Each structure stands twice: as C-alpha cells, then as structure tokens.
Amino acid sequence: MFLNLSTELLQSGYSVRFRPPGHSMHPTIRDGETVLVEPVNALAIKRGDILLCQTVRGVTAHRVVAIRKKEQARVFILRGDASLSCDEPVEAEQVLGRVVQVERNERVIGLASMSARLRQRARLRAARLKSALLPARRTESI
C-alpha cells in the first residue's frame, strides 16, 4: 500500500514524508528518522543525490555514485553510505523520487544545500577510497 500511494503522489507532483527503516544510509539518514522525498526528473539527477527507488529487494533510498548511459536512457549506480558494495543498476523508470531533507532531533537537515553537497562529495570520496582499499585488505589476509 505504501509503495502504491507514494508512487501515485510523487507522479502527481506531490512530496512524500515517511520514516524509512534500516542503517544502510548512516550517518546521513539514521534508522527511523523522517525523510522528505520530492518528485524528480531523471535528467535532473546528479551524482551524490539520494534516490528513492523500486528495486528487486523493495523500496530503497540510496546515494547515486555513478550515472551511466544505456542506449538512449540513463542508468544509476547506487550505494548506501554505510555499504561497501553498490546495488544493482537502477533505470529511470524505477526512480520514485529524490530525498531532499531529513528530520533529526526536531531539526530539518536539507540535503540540497551547498554544505550538504560538500558532505556528499566527501562521502563519495570516502566510499571510493573504501572500495579501493577493500581488495587490498582481502589480499593481505590471504
């Protein structure tokens, strides 16, 4: 029911607020915090955005770490901030919206501000470094 209602609202141009469970986006989004998701055009999506998508595993909100072209369409590579590996690629039709703010301890944290963009870039760089070092750790332990 949540998926159907959220999809319908976002496709009609409305925003959706809800509390996603899980720890995969920690520290940006903590378990049970309220997020605001707005409709987004696939052409407006940038690396660093957090997308709400319908995937094989269900509804997921993860960060865009890469954008690839597939024929005439765009494909998004997502990863949770606390995850070591990327999700399966997501096509534009699977994108429900973009997470634009988090409510934490009675504060509203915008995810589209300049400081939020700088934090996103730092997390993307840290994720790349983590990915680069992960194979090295495996080799050392063998």
Written description of the protein model:
The chain is built from two helices and eight strands; from the N terminus they run αββββββββα. With 142 residues, the protein is an alpha+beta fold. Strands 1, 2, 3, 4, 5, 6, 7 and 8 form an eight-stranded antiparallel beta sheet that branches. A hairpin with a 2-residue loop joins strand 4 and strand 5 (73-79). It has helices at 2-11, 114-141, and strands at 16-18, 34-38, 50-55, 58-70, 73-79, 90-91, 95-104, 107-110. It starts with a helix and ends with a helix. The longest helix has 28 residues, at 114-141. It has a single domain, classed as Umud Fragment, subunit A. Helix content is 27%, strand content 35%.
What is the succession of H and E elements?
HEEEEEEEEH
The best one-word shape is globular
According to CATH, what is the topology? Umud Fragment, subunit A
Number of domains: 1
Let me know the CATH homologous superfamily.
Umud Fragment, subunit A
Which parts are unreliable, with pLDDT below 50 for 5 consecutive residues or more? 137-142
| Major β-sheet annotation | 8 strands, antiparallel
Walk me through the topology.
Layout: H1 2-11, E1 16-18, E2 34-38, E3 50-55, E4 58-70, E5 73-79, E6 90-91, E7 95-104, E8 107-110, H2 114-141
Antiparallel strand pairs: 1-2, 2-7, 3-4, 3-7, 4-5, 5-6, 7-8
